[in-house]
Structures are given as structure tokens and as C-alpha cells.
Sequence to fold (954 residues):
Amino acid sequence: MSTTSVLGGSVRRREDPALIRGKGRFVDDIKLAGTTHVAFVRSPFAHAKINSIDASAAMEMEGVIAIYTADDVRHLGLLLAQVAIGRLRPLLADGVVKHAGEAVAMVVAENRYLAQDAADAVEVDYEPMKAIVDIKEAASDKAMVHEELESNTLITWEAGPWGNEEGIAATKEKIAEAKKRDDIVTVSMEMKNQRLIPTAIEPRAVIADWNDGYGRMTVYSSTQIPHALAGAIAKTFGLAANAVDVIAPEVGGGFGAKLNVYADEMLVSFASMQLGRPVKYTESRRESPYNTIQGRGWVATATITGTKDGEVLAFELDGLADMGAYTQNFTVAIPFLGTFVGSGQYKFPTHWKIGCVTTHTMTTDAYRGAGRPEAIYYLERILDAYAREIEMDLAEVKLKNFIPESDFPGAVAPIGFQFDTGAYQTNLKALTDSAEYSELKSLRDKARAEGRHVGLGLSSYVEVCGFGPSALSGLGFSWTTYGLPSAFSGSGLVRINGDASVTVIIGTGPSGQGHETTWAQLVAGQLGIDYEKVRVTHGNTAESPMGIGTFGSRSAAVDGAASYEAALKVKAKAAQIAAHILEASADDIEFSDGSAHVAGSPDKSVSWEDIVTSAYHPHMLPEGMEGGLEAHSVFSPANATWPFGAHAALVEVDPETGFTQLLRYVTMDDCGNVISPMIVDGQIHGGLAQGISQAMFEDAIYDEEGNLLTSSLVDYPLPTAQDLPSFNLSRTVTPSDVNPLGVKGIGEAGTIGSAQTVVNAAVDALYDLGVRHIDMPLRSRRVWQAIQDARS
Amino acid sequence: MTVNDRSVSGDIDPRTLLVHFIRENLNLTGTHIGCETSYCGACTVMFDGRTVKSCTVLAVAADGATITTIEGLAKNGQLHAVQEGFWERHGLQCGFCTPGMIMAAVGLLEENNNPSEDEIRHGIEGNLCRCTGYHNIVKAIEYAGAKLRGEEPPPAEWEVSA
Ligand code: FES
Ligand code: FES
Fold:
């Protein structure tokens, strides 16, 4: 089910003709003459002292050009991170390793195989030390992950009205009153939100090409943040920002894992400067989890105190989040992002406390949703448990506790942040009143009558995305670490070419989101120029205006708005030129079908070709007008956007084996106005798959020694087409008021809304057997065990 | 061997995998590497009329074989129905899994040009996509199936109003 959009509509994607013919160009497809290849020597231990590294035999091997260790790169400093709390990563392990797979030495050779052969021949003498892997053990501070730090808890994010005395007093009083009336229920559960490996199907790849003739570095990287990477390289090597060009060609999925600056990107740049040749590194699938960030990894206790008729008096979350060994781009900020939506769509007092704990494991950082799926998971799971405890319909409990629609726009969440627009009651009712939802209910009831264990799960969410505002830099999110002046603004440049075709240049870093299509639609629509004549380019920092990249579901709401405003500027100038040519008033000029017309006189028109000819012949322009026909806009929204929605899932569990199957999935999302329904639905599908997959399949497991047991796709199974159903999507539309398009982000909503929906459904299926909670993922063994535990 | 109707040869290290031969020696970089261990399917090509994961085959084992890669699928500038289906039904996002996924779908439809949804899902089980949740890939293959049967494909979901 989809609607047509006033802003665009569904058109075939501009990106696709190359990609479906095998002509898309990804980093690993790029071959520069004279390229050398990198392999890393990686630690087999999670925590060990490095006594010595002997590369002499490896150096003698065929095709080996250079081998570098910490001694060679120490002078470059640690890897830059935006929120630099904790221990930053050394480019190569310096005397000690802190997680399994940490890079200890880098081999550069004539080809990949020779590089790998030599890496295997580098002899490293390690002295293994005790690894701290368990997050609670780490938090106890009995032993330190990094001796130089005072505590393994790097920072504790605490938020909510319980954080101030007034809030505590008011909440306590309400609870005391309810106690007096004997009208109180407390539900509390410790739950895991397991660690995940983002696993874009394209492994990360990078090529650095230093040219000392030009004094310029060109880096090709599969990154979501080309400008930040350029800035980081410039800073690390003491180069001017305009001496580093980063090109992100096609990027094969990112999901946050490519929203990071990586040590390998600095190291290949270093090697290229040393060797004067291009240097390329492509991760293998096996080493990717040791080299590219992971996500989630929380354990927390959620507690709801409420009345017996469904009024929640207080919600508390108290837990720990695993940061891994080293802080990278956003690492410790991820749980902080969770606090934004800590009180969800509700008006009840919320107290949130998450400690960010370092362990001897791979770094965690932003993975699709980044803090928000965790926050919503805990909140919605415990709310479901509370509704069951008081035997009240979960939807009723929600309606009773939602922030009222009359508070919007600009309602303030109890946890302290201000929303843009919202209509939570309308959205939830649109789902629960739908035919699809009724069908889920009747399917469940029918199956139950047949003795099958089928459960219906419901949950809802609000999320925050589309960052801006630029004032976020005051909260410690600042791209200045990477030498970027930009703090969450977006930008776009619109140029009318000589033949009246249009070039739009944007500062985002898409990895499959279809920006070339959507931006072309936005600009073509404004200018009255055929969509086919608009080309959108991105991903080359030498050409594109400053942009911080594609992440946090921000591109349409921020950079899209910038391109839209740039198009308006071009249009205003073109209207003046047309008015001059047609001897009319600029106010009366309208654009359609490739021409400017005088309103009311359809025969008085001038084509874009003629307008652009005038524009580039300034003597033909109105007195005093500057030549040219292009405009650049920077857009910085007043607030982030806050999409929301409600999801329902139907799940069947075989109690004999624990095998759990997702039968149906129905959504009612609200991301404001929609430019292309086709692309928005695609984003939701993909987001759902990842949230459902967290609920059902994925689990990054470390053993006690800190070895990652799930580094291959066999041990870390992604869902196949057979594991997922088709999805049934619908939406409500509540336009945002913080950008001119009225759009909100949609890249992460599917993920944020789905994991708890599936778990709620599984618990519903097994509630009569006494099961109250099952930690994700719902793999057969674990589900079976939960049933046994409940029975005994 | 014959690749995309062109006869090709090369002197190679016997360890060379077919996928590397295709990408490195023939410069046909549309065949992708997502895992090199036979799990993701990004490297799927047609090998003597069957789909194979080209990271599981040694190039020398393909001596004399007839191979079609994604670059050879369109004929005379005309997209194959499966390519058209992926474009028409938004069957790709980042496009990295797409060449392999398209080849798998071609193989599936050559065996059965009227598969049910279950049969489609089963047929592409060996190919992973992290972006689309497979929903629109299934629709794309349904579209292609209809085209190959000479039927009108079902309308796109976004054309059917709520
Ligand atoms: S690269 Fe061959 S199956 Fe993944
Ligand atoms: S489209 Fe990105 S992996 Fe399938």
C-alpha cells in the first residue's frame, strides 16, 4: 500500500542502469596503475603484551615492498574520534593489543596473495594477559582494560526528570499515593540487547594515491562520510584540507559501519606517501568483524511502576553498554543518542542511566539505529510486560500514556528533548483499526484454536534523526575533530548547464538510498525541467560542497532541503531573466515543461535554453545582474526530525523444538511527507529486515578469552529470503515543521520499530507456557530453553 | 573458456579462483566478492547453463566452459527481463548483491518461469542481500517471470493506492 507524493512520486531509479548491468564502480573495482596491496598481521589474542615483532623473513619474501609497525606510524598520533572519551585507537598496536584481531603490522606487496603470505610470516612474540570481556566484570573495575584509565566505565549518561530533585519528589509522591490506595504494580526485567556485526555485503575497501608532484592525496574509500575522511587525513598528515580528495564511488551498503574514520584509511595513506605508489586494502569477510565497528551490546534492567489500570508512574532504565576496547568516531555517544528517545512517545517520568564500559573486544559504534533501537527495545518490552501483568490491552496502555496530540508541534519529552511534530494516537489507531491488524488477530486466534503457539506482538516507537540542528555541536558532537567546520548542516549546489540540463552536486555519501533519483525529482519539480535532464553527483570532496555525509536518516531532511532551496534560488534568478526577456514581471513567471511562461498568457514563454544563454551573456541580462545560473544553499534545521510508528508481528513457535518463524509483519510508519514512496518503502523493508534479524538470528559472540566466535557468515547467519516474509506497509503522514519539505528520515525507523515487536509476539505465543521473556536472538535452542525454564 | 560469447584465455596461477580471473584478468568487475567463502552469492555467474558461485570454482576448472556474467546478460542493448524487473520493481538499493542476485534469478526462472513466492524465496536462498529485506527482489522476479511468460506483470505496489 502506498500513496503518490506531492513532492515527487515513484520513478525508476537513476542509479540502477549501471548497477543492473554490472557497470557500477565500487572501490575494489578500481585499478590504478602500479597499485600495491596490503595485508595486516592481526593479533590472535584479545589482550597481550607485544614483546617483539620480527618481520625480517617476511621482508625477504617475493613481492614484498614494505612492512610497517607502530614504530613507523607512532608520530602520526592516535586515530581521531569525534567524541574522544576513552582510549583512542593507535593506528597499529603499540606494545600491547587490546582486542582480538587488532592490527599489529601492515605488509605492502605487489599483490594481495603475496601480501597475505608475508603477513603470515611475520613473527610476533606475544605475552597473553587476562582479557576482560564480560561487561559486568569490566564495570566492577576489578581489573583495568587500559591501565592508564581510572575506570572501565568511560562515562555514564544519565537523563530524565528523576535526575533532578523536583522530579524525584513529584514522582515519589505519586508512587506513594498509589501505594496507599494499593493500586501499584512494578514490573522489572534485565534484558540483553546483543552485540551485532553490521555486515554490509560489500566489505570495506580503500585506495590511497599520493602524488608528490601535485602534493595531493586522492583516496577512494567505501565510506558514508567522504568529507570527514578527507579532513581526518589532512589533519593526520598535516596537509591542507584542499590537498586531500576523497572519492566515495558506489558504496555497497553502510548501515553505520562506514560512518567512521578507520585506521586502515590512515595507514594506506601513510604507505602511499612513503612508497609513491597507490596502496589498496580490501577487507576480507573473515577479518571484517575485527576491523570494522560492531554495534549494540547492552545489558540493562528496565522497570515500570504503574497503577493497576494502566497509568505508568515511572520508567527506569539502568544498564551498561559495551564500547569495546577503543573509542572511534561516535562510540560513547551512541548510548547518549538513545537517551533522546528514552521516554519514547510517552508522558511518564523516565530515568535513564547507561554506563559506557570498555572491554577487550572490537569497538562498537553506530549500527543502523545507533542507540535508538536499544532504547525503544527496553521501553517497549517492559511496557508489554506491564500490560500483560495488569491484564490490559497493550494498545490501551499506550493510548493512556502517549503524549497528547494537542501538545504538538513542539512537545517536550519527559526525558528533556523537544519533538517536532507527532500524532501518536492517530498513528496507533490507524494500525490497530486496520483490516491487516484484524487479520493478524483472527489468524492468531484460529491457530490457537488448532493448538498452535502463535503470538501477536505490537509495539510503537518514536525516533530521532535528520541531524541538525547545528547547535548539537554544543552537546559534544562536533565534526571539527576532522577539521570540518560543518556541524550537522546540509548543502547542495544546483547548476543549469549551457544546454539547460541540470547538475546537482551534493555533500552526502549515499550507500544505496537513491539520492541521485530523489534529489533529481526534487530539483526537476521546482524548475519545471524534465527529470531526465537532471543529473545528481556526489561523493567527490574536490567537487561537492561541504556535507557531513549520509547517516542518522538525515540526508533528505537536511541535504535534500538544501538542494531544494538552492533550486528555489536558481528559479528566482531565472524568473527575473525570463521576465526581462518577456517584458513581464518576475512575479508572473511560472515554470513548466522546460520553459518559463507568463501566468495567464501561455503564448508568452521562453525556454530554459534561452534563459541560460542570457545568463551566460551578461550583456543580455537586466542591468546590474551577475552572470551565471547556479546557486548553493546550506540548510541547518532548527531541530532534528522525530518519525514514529507502530508495528505488529505474527510469530509461530514450535514448543517441541523452539523453532520460531515470523509469519506476518505489518507496519504503520510516519515519516512526514514522502518524496518517493518506492524508495521510502524500500528503506523500511531493509530496516525491518535488520531489526527482525536482531530479534531472530544475529549474535556476535565472544568467548571468555575474547575470541570472536562468529566471524564468518556461517557462524553469524544473516537472514536469507526464506527467513523473512513479505511485509505489509502503510503510513500516516504528519509533516515535519523543521524543513521546507516536511520530510522526516526513514532509514532507521524499520530497525528501531521491529526487534521488540517480534519478541513481544514470541512471548505472546508462549505466555500460556509461563514464558515472560526471551533474550534475543530467538534461535531454537534459546527459545526451547526458555520454555523448559518456564515449565520447571 | 567462453565468457559472454567471447573466447578468452590466460596464463594463471593454478590457485586462481574463477571470480578473480573474471575480475582481474578479464576486467569484468560486475561480478562481486562479498565473502570468498561461498555464503553470500555476490559472485554468482552462469557456468555451462547452471548458476555457480564463482568463488568456489578454480579458474582452471572452467577451462573450456561457457560462462555468462552480469555484463553479458543484456543482448543487443536489450536488458534481460530479470534486469528490467529489478529496475522496475526497486529490487536493489546499494546494488552490491545485485549482479549475483540477478544471475541467481535468471537460473531460477530458466528452470521454472512461473514460480510461487515460496519457490522464489527458496530459489535465491544462496544469495544474501543486506539492503532490501528481499521484499522487492521477490517482486522483481515475479515481474520478470511474467515478462518471460509473455504476460503483463502485476502492477507495482506503489501504483496500487491504499
Ligand atoms: S563471494 Fe562467492 S559466495 Fe560470497
Ligand atoms: S542491494 Fe545492497 S546488498 Fe542487496
